[in-house]
């Protein structure tokens, strides 16, 4: 611990740091949870975009992951990963790059939710007799991408995909991102149950029209942190944020604050007694403005200092002031360091 403290003390700030022990514990808990349910975990890489965390999340298998960009897909392919799902509604301008990944890898999956995207695949047959491996995106009342589960168009699109030459309908994919509006385990479980039920019922409707043997997958960190029993009937789940967690996840009820594996380190660079504020060297470029300063402590939790608030930020600066009362500037000399627990870690790592 002394060596770690010395190392941190010498870091240039702002610095994004990860407690690997906590990240490994989070990953191990999720892997074990779904192994016991008999469900394949296909972790999402967009939170971290690193080989180190990918190896932790896959248990070293280097298989069965989700990405949200083709840059991520290429990065993992370059480093020996396979069975990669590009879980973004297929854009026309990226079909050629997807084809190259399909032809290069043993298993590369694409996702679509409309007929024109399917026609783009048909116009670009794969070499070596390969088939496009397609997941259809289903909207189970999340209200983002996907064909609405209750609409006849969903069954029709599934039929079209299954009947298209050169294409294999591999599975049905749903994201229960509406769990991000939850407060507590009971609400999370209610949405996880609703999403699971909608997806499983849709799978039964597919069987009734002769489409069988498909995979089924739902995902979000909240729903997979508190899975309902019916999720054992799914083929896969695809959470991602859980390897790090963040303050937002603790407020939703996915985790405890002590499960958050990441911090942003920042130093005091200015004293401004006339406005009762400190200035630190982390602004929105280091921390992001996600959450809009909604916490009692502003844009982040300042570890060990519940009396302080990160009240506002510009690109490279943050203003810290007391939640109430006068600030004791002597307690925070220039160069002293704060450890910020971020509201939403994904938005930091997108920068």
Automatic annotation (TrEMBL):
Enzyme Commission (EC) number: 4.3.1.18
GO molecular function: D-serine ammonia-lyase activity; metal ion binding
Keyword annotations: Lyase, Metal-binding, Pyridoxal phosphate, Zinc
InterPro entries named among the record's database cross-references: Ala_racemase_N, D-amino_acid_metab_enzyme, D-ser_dehydrat-like_dom, D-ser_dehydrat-like_sf, PLP-binding_barrel
Secreted keyword on record: no
Catalytic activity: D-serine = pyruvate + NH4(+)
Record family assignment: Belongs to the DSD1 family.
GO annotation, biological process: D-serine catabolic process
Pfam families: Ala_racemase_N, D-ser_dehydrat
First-level EC class: lyase
Cofactor(s) demanded: pyridoxal 5'-phosphate; Zn(2+)
Gene that encodes the chain: zgc:162816
SUPFAM superfamilies: PLP-binding barrel
Species classification: Eukaryota, Metazoa, Chordata, Craniata, Vertebrata
Protein name per UniProt: D-serine dehydratase
Organism, scientific name: Electrophorus electricus
Domain named D-serine dehydratase-like: residues: 261-347
Superkingdom to which the source organism belongs: Eukaryota
